[in-house]
Amino acid sequence: MIELCRIRCILIVCTCLLTCNVAADEAVSLEQENATPERKTEAAVGTVRAAPANVESQVKAKASVGAQGKSKNILGEKAQSAVGTAQKATSTVVEARNELKEGVGEGATGTAEPDEKESPQSELKKAEHIDLKEVVTTPLATPMPAATHTAELEPLVVPSVGTAPIVEPSITRDGEAQPQAAIQEPLILLDNEVPPGTSTRLSWTPNVSFMGISAPTAVLVVRGAKPGPTLCLTAATHGDELNGIEVVRHLLYSIEPEELAGTVIGVPIVNLQGFRRSSRYLPDRRDLNRYFPGNSHGSSASRIAHSFFEGVISHCDLLVDLHTGSFKRTNLPQLRANLLIPEVAELAKKMGSIVVVHSEGAPGCLRRATVERGIPAVTLEAGQPHQLQKTAVTHGIKSVESLMDGLGMLDRRPFWKLPSEPVYYQSKWVRATSGGILFSEVNLGDRVAAGELLGVITDPITNQRDEVTAPLEGRVIGMALNQVMYPGFAAYHLGLQSDVEDVNENEGEATTEEGEPIDEPLELDTAIQPSVDELDSRILEDSE
Fold this sequence. Notes:
30% of the residues lie in helices and 22% in strands. With 544 residues, it is α/β, with parallel strands linked by helices. The chain folds into three domains: 2-107; 187-423, Zn peptidases (Aminopeptidase, 3-Layer(aba) Sandwich); 427-540, CATH 2.40.50.100. Strands 6, 7, 8, 9, 10, 11, 12, 13, 14, 15, 17, 20 and 22 form a 13-stranded mixed β-sheet that branches. Strands 19-18-16-21 form a four-stranded antiparallel β-sheet, with no helix packed on it. Strands 1-5-4 form a three-stranded mixed β-sheet, with no helix packed on it. The protein starts with a helix and ends with a helix. Residues 61-72, 103-120, 144-164, 505-510 and 519-544 have low confidence and may be disordered.
């Protein structure tokens, strides 16, 4: 009987010790955790506090019933030892509880709890100063686009920086404030800060491709040391137009930031995807120059247009968009501008001795969208696609340099052989009346009289010969190259002598960005008619 009581007492003591150890471990774990420490501490303290009383009552009861003499004394000493151990564990837990309460109090009065982490804010990077005249011997690194948490890809919208310079007053000897020279501010563009008196090379990525194959488009920036307007130059919106690329390259790499008043932003190749394939279109066969200012939730072309327009164009004060003719056509160096807008007309006047053709611009083209945003813009046309033509490139460079000189940005006065060129407020395209092989009898820039022969179209099968004549007196400002023609193909573009009073926006033949005619939409089966966003530009227009 005594042995049985001894065994039972030992088991009870072990249970007590285990309970105390569990309670102590729970208190330690509570000290390491931050979440709900008070509730867990109260539970642990309650468990430990109850342990000594339970152990003491159970040990005394068992000892009084089954223990006698010496065995009873031994069991009593063990019970007292177990009770003391439990009491020590209780005091340890109470101390832990007090420390946790103090820690919770400090956390309440301090910063936010660890689980409420503040989202990191993106900081502007200071653009590295790069001498654009230095030759790059290694390929440029391709930055990976930032990962997005939503399915919709939003373009990077950067807050614009006003062009108004900071003027700090100075105190004269008489104590009167006298304004000092204006101070140029840094330019914020594409999440970068470009300091005054520096030049750099930034990257714009539309983020509409696979992350692993996305290609950044180079954006060249020259931030002048002195304040002035921000002039933007864009080229290769159509990927097969090369002359404008060389114009932008030559200008941006020849400007010294210390001599520049204002900023010049140049994008040599806007449509990089089309340029890589020697195509004027995007990979989905859409014309990028029909989707400006774009839509962040629209088609791929519309998203690219929106990203470029908001990320780059919205920071411009003036825009010159460089183009060439399209589809085996060539253009006399000329400006296309909406001359009914005074700010645009003033911009065109500063571009030197170059033909100016009045045109509002096709809906969705970059020039028109920019003007509608309140930024004066013109299109500079020169030459033909798929070719680098030195004469056209030189004319474009001189025209932009004349503009910068007229704006007071640079002290460059190019020499023009011709003092001035005419302004054509009206123009007309002459179309082929039959199919065959075209051989032109006139050249770009020729002045023709009404009824004068422009070219001959010969049918190679029947040998039938049809002449193409000028319907009105004018000047050849655009023409098709010698090639196979089909009936209705736009062959010659004539600039007509007229005044601004003769312009009627509601009459006359509308033209594309290159001055080519826009036909009315073809009659399509309503059952299969696509939306306007999906309609191919080749259906809406003769060419572009």
